[in-house]
Every structure is written in structure tokens, then in C-alpha cells.
Amino acid sequence: MARSSTSSNKKKVLIVGAGAAGMSCADGLSNHPDRFDVTIIDAQAYCGGQAFSIPIDKKHGANWMNQGVQGGSYIYQHTFHHFRKCGYEEEPVELQVSFGKGDKFWTNLFPTNLVSQHASDIKKFNRFLKIVRWTELFWALIPIKVSCKMAGLSDEFVDYMLFPSLALFLGTGNATPDLPTIMMERLYTSPTYGMWYPCDPKSLSSNLPPMVVFPESSEFYRTWQGKLEERGVTVRLNTELAAVTSRDPVVRVMLRPRRQQEDLHNPDGADQDLPATEEVYDEIVICTLADTAKRVLGKDASRREKWVLGNTKWSDDITVTHTDIDYIKKYYTIEYDESQAVENINGRDDSQRVRKGEKEFQPMYLIKQVPKNPRLLEMCFDCTNFQYQLDKNLPLEDHVFQTIFLNKRDEQTWTRDEIRKDKIIREDWWHQLCHSWTHYAFVVPFVWLLNRNKKHTTFAGSWTLVNAHEVAVISGTAAAYKLGADYPEDLYKNDFARKAFKSYLFLTHGLTLAKNRIRKSSIQI
Ligand SMILES: Cc1cc2nc3c(=O)[nH]c(=O)nc-3n(C[C@H](O)[C@H](O)[C@H](O)COP(=O)(O)OP(=O)(O)OC[C@H]3O[C@@H](n4cnc5c(N)ncnc54)[C@H](O)[C@@H]3O)c2cc1C
């Protein structure tokens, strides 16, 4: 039987998806219990979406590790705001990377032969960055693979040094050559967003980017769920939005229950035999991935919605979490490689960096290239070196690695079968957004048009801009703001957070942040 809309003046809001975006939206609306009656649903049996933790053997130093989202940078102010409110903290880490192997190996910790050989490319690249900085808008949509050719950079430099340095930070994997040039430029020239800032004119990247690693994601999201429930939000897990049947004058949806799996991860597309029932709401906030949004809107989607949502591109990747050190040693550089270290880097004495490398080389982000096509990457985390709770002093045999095989389409190039089965802790498939230039030409500039409609519909999620946890949180906060929620005072007083939020709000909703819409906060700044 259909539920009817509430007879009170409260707006009945359905939030679909309890990932970072949906939870942030629910959080914003829950501060106005007099105006909103909030229900958040998720097809899975847990809140957090792509941010979750898994249990591991205590011999690794802790009995948990984060599996999807692992960390971010100091710009993640909205994420930190929610950590603090729930009593959690992020931990700082100085990032070390290790790209390639043998004569193709380089790192940000100390210079190597590869870096030395590309002295003229690095010089050219520095000059090119300055030009791009001055003429930024022109490069906004030009793919990196094109601009690097225009700059006259060698293929080896681009493939073995430049692309890996971008792929890991931006999480763009094999879509890196198609990234808009402006993203590459920002990564090297922006004091705020530039993880490789300042670009080193002698060795490309010699800084150790200050990053943060997240607290236990599943615990944090469970606590957040509890806080939302205390504030009157109805959280319904194992509940899937099967279809939106109409949205005017009210939103009618078909919701299907899901059978809970032991590990709380319900497989996509299962449980279709369970009957869906209709429910009615005043507003819907869709915080799923864009292609899911298009599917559930089905025939009710407008042409504009079909076009924008349909222009997002996705790849299916798999992460293998394992302890196979032989596999890692075969394909990655995980230990200090004396034969590749270079003390004098194009006239500059870098022996101090080499000494530091000898003692402290503990790379966290690693990349391997497919030999036949170096533009196809395999990415890997040494989670033990990266995640603060794991014991870095353990022998490498006891480190936990997460190897990411990108894009099922390229499966024939994967070496996944070489990872010993008895060393695998867990495997997870992910449907990941590709940040090609088309995303910034045909999706991002039009999200505000989707959000301005008479169909009681709002879209949020990291796909609206960049695939990052912080963007998801900002998008959910902006969705709540659009519907009438206030913006938290501590974030308003934080210059960086406020500017980021205002830019996002304008870009994806065409709205400005009003001074009289700031909510007093319980957090001290
Ligand atoms: C392997 C991996 C590592 C990553 N590492 C990082 C990192 O270190 N740092 C970082 O900042 N970002 C990282 N990201 C990106 C980051 O995880 C995402 O950008 C962010 O978590 C997305 O949040 P979201 O709320 O937009 O979407 P999601 O987290 O995907 O949430 C969407 C939710 O909608 C639910 N849902 C889908 N369909 C339905 C339906 N029909 N009915 C009901 N519910 C539905 C899903 O179950 C899900 O819970 C990583 C991503 C991956 C895959």
C-alpha cells in the first residue's frame, strides 16, 4: 500500500544512498527537525558507500584497515568537520611514492637515473607549466596527452614520470591521458591543491606531500548513523530504490528490500525476486552514482537528465588486498635501490636526499606499468606504510598491500592471477568515475541545470565534480542547503572551507551562500 505524504508542514525528504554525500545531506537537514522529515536509504547493509573498513589479522598491527577511501589532504575540511563531530581524528602522513622498476624507477624521496636522464624534459615541463598558469582557461578542456605533445615532452617522460604522478593523486588510473590539462597544472602549481607544489626544476617532484589518513571508516560511519538517528533521521539499510515512477506533484518511488549478506556487502543486481512497494515523498535527493540515477529515473528522466547523467564515463576496477611480497617485489620497487640512486642531479648536490632514502624509504603509493603499453597502469598501496594503525616496523612479508587492477576492458593485460591465492585477504570490484575531459565539458558545467527543476529532485555525489570523499561531503551539504538547511558556523569561519563550499554551491546549484543561513556549531575552532 502506498504511504501518503505527511499532513504536517514538514517536508518529507528521501535521500537515496548513505555514502559520504547522502550522510552529509541527512546531517544538514537533520538540524531542522521542525521542517524536514528525513529518510535515508541504502541498498547495502552499512552506511559509508565506498568508505568502509575490513577486519584483518592482528599480527599486522591492528584488527582493521580501511579498504576503499584511505585518506586525503588538508583541504578535506568538511570531512574533518564530521570526524570531529563524531569524536574521530585523521592522522598526518608525509607521502612517499615509488613508480616503476629498474631503470624506469623514480620516487619523490631521492633522485634516480630516470630523473637524471630527463633533465631537459623536466626543464621544458617547468616552462610549460608557467605558460599554462598564465593562460589557464585556454587549457581547461585540452587533454593532457595533447598538451604534452604540444609542449614537446618526450613519450618516456610523459609515460613513466608525468602520468604516474597524476594518476595516483587524482585516482584517475588509465584515464589520466584524457584529463584536462588544467588539473595537471594545478597539481604542480597551486599552493592549496598542488600535491606536487612546488614543481622541482631539477627532479620534478622532491617534496613529501603532507596528507592525512582516515580513522576507521566503518566505525566512523556507524557513529554518524547513530547521531543522525538520535536527531530523528530514519536510516533504512538493505533498502534499494528500484524505480522513480513520477515526481510531480509528489515523488513516487518503488523501494525493494535486500537480503543482508554476512559481510554487509549485498551484491549488485541481486534480490530482484523480492517485491518492491510504493512510497511517496515531497523531495528526493539522489546520492547514488550518476549512471544508477539515470537507471532508476528510467522513463521519468527528462531529456536533459538523460543527457547529463548519460555523459558520465565509468570503469570497473578490482582491488586485491593481499600479503604476497613476492608479487610486489617482482613488479614494484619497495626497497631502497642503490643502483638507481643519483647524488648529483644535473649539477645539484642531492646526496642528503639519497642518505634519507637509504634510511627512510617506505613508499606508500606504488605504480607498475604494463610493459607493452606503459599508459596502462597497475596501482598499489603499501597499506602498512600508509595507514597509521598498522605496524610499519614489521618485516615486508607481513605488510598488507592493496593492488588495483584498472578497467576490466584491459583485463588481458592484468597480472592478477600471479598473486598467490593463499595470500589474498579480500577482493572488491568498484565502479569508478573516469575523469576524462568530456566529464568537464559535458557533465560538470550542466549539473546546476539538473538541480534546478520543478520535479522535487536534487543530485549529489562526488561524480558531480571529482571522485573524492571531500567532494561527496560538500555535495551532500550543498544539497541540504538547497532544500533549506543552514551551513555550519565553524565551516563558515574557516576561510578555505567556506570558499570551497561557495564555489561548489554556485557551480552545481547556481546558488550563493547567504549570511543569514549559518548555523551555530558545537565544534570549537
Ligand atoms: C578503491 C577506492 C579508493 C578510493 N580512495 C579514496 C581516497 O583515498 N580518498 C578520497 O578522497 N577518495 C577516494 N575514493 C573516492 C571516494 O571513495 C568517493 O569519491 C566517495 O566516497 C563517493 O561518495 P558518494 O557518496 O558520492 O558515493 P558512494 O560512496 O558510492 O555512495 C553511494 C551509495 O548509494 C548506494 N546506492 C546505489 N544505488 C542505490 C539504490 N538503487 N538504492 C539505494 N542505495 C543505492 C550505494 O550502496 C552507496 O552506498 C576512492 C574510491 C575507491 C573506489
UniProtKB/TrEMBL annotation:
Pfam families: NAD_binding_8. It comes from the Eukaryota. One of its GO terms (molecular function) is oxidoreductase activity. InterPro entries: FAD/NAD-bd_sf (IPR036188), Zeta_carotene_desat/Oxidored (IPR050464). This is FAD/NAD(P)-binding domain-containing protein.
